[in-house]
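Q: Hi! First time asking for a complex rather than a single chain. Here are the components, and I think there are two in total. Is that enough to go on?
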Amino acid sequence: MPGESTDEEVVRRTITDKDAFAELIGRYEAKLGRYLERLGLGVREDREDVLQNVFIKAYRNLNSFDPSLSFSSWIYRIAHNEAMSFFRARRARPQVVLGDDSDFLLSELRDEHADSTRAAERRLSREELSRALVAIDPQYREVLILRFFDDRSYTEISDILQVPLGTVSTLIYRAKRALRAALPNAFIL
Amino acid sequence: MNETSNQLAERVLHRIEAEDVHPRPRWEFLLKNYTFWTVGAVAVTLGAVAFSAALFEVENTTWRLYMATHPNLFSFVLAVAPFLWVIALAVFILLGYVNIRHTNRGYRYPLLLIAAGAVLTSVTLGSALYAAGYGGRVEEALGSIPPFYRPILQQEHGWWLNPNRGLLGGVVMSVASAASSSPLGFVLKDFSGHLWKIDGADLRGIDLTILARGGTVRVVGVPVVGPTSSSTVFHACFVFPWRVFGLGSRPPSSPVAVFSSSTERMSGIARSDVCRGIRPYKQLRDLDENGF
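A: Yes, that's all I need. Here is the structure of the assembled complex.
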């Protein structure tokens, strides 16, 4: 929207006027809600509680935000930390629920193999992909979610997971391999 | 902004109000970041200090005489390997790495880059500290604290204060006769302060050169009266220099004698049977003849 303030400008305003924070909440509530859901926070009430904590924590730590980095990565990092704390505290097993936005990941998996005819024989259901995502290492699951569902760049993923840029490429490569191995045999691409 | 967002925003702002939440001041975050940098830098510097001490220990180990002081190379390596300093170096480098990794953008640097940077900085700075003479001071001062560790010079002093095993170290006080025709003798003050009369009849060219320079020397030989006696007379078979590296520049010791280079002693004739019985005669002789 032309004339709309940048996140960084809203952050600066929020320091002196807490009501401005509502604008940031509006911008990120849906995105972070989907991100948390994909991370495995399947129950709506849990997700909302975590989301509230994310924004409270973000508000409390606004002064730690480095404007030379993206605000989006910064708040995703907080959401990541809160989700991990939630799983640790509840000792809960993530329940990955995917929407119809999983095609990007599937096409990415297929693109690496010239022969996609076998995979095309049967359409992979969201449930099967969700089960495979739950089965793989949480670190791999998260990097796939950030890259293929949230469409984050490598630099943003590096800032969110706080790993070097080179490690992001390695993680994505290994995550795709792990996901392929976790898929039902009929979908080994 | 839809209705759900408004609801969440309202709930969040209400909680902020009710719980009196305020943004933490910027200086707290800056302090935290600078603390990580400072602790990281201090850890790497301490790693450098540990490296300088390790270097001092390695440099001042008389590897070439291990066969005289120890039954085998393995026991010698166990005694002189700078385990304490290497462990300290590893711990400080790890501490430096962890702290640098936790700074604001520390995660962006590859693990290998931070680790290699910390190691390289510690090694470079440690070498400079060693060259400036601090390695020895650290090794001696800090090395005296742990009960399981003895500084290298103290260890060496212990090994060379063992006349019953034919090992004697100390400062050459005076040479009794430098004339080529008369029997050579000199006085040595050992590390516990005792004066020894040393019979030097079996000493050869290089031994005499070392002796003439004065200062601290190592003498391999045989106690004259027997191991159970409190003899302070010692028959010298070989003399080796005692050099200490890494303690900064020190004035050279004053020469205590001048020997003529054309004397019989300067030739390589065999030593007496008294010396041939010492262990390990052949290796010591080779070392003596080929230079220490």
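A: Chain B has two domains: 26-151, 160-290. Let me know if you'd like any chain examined more closely.
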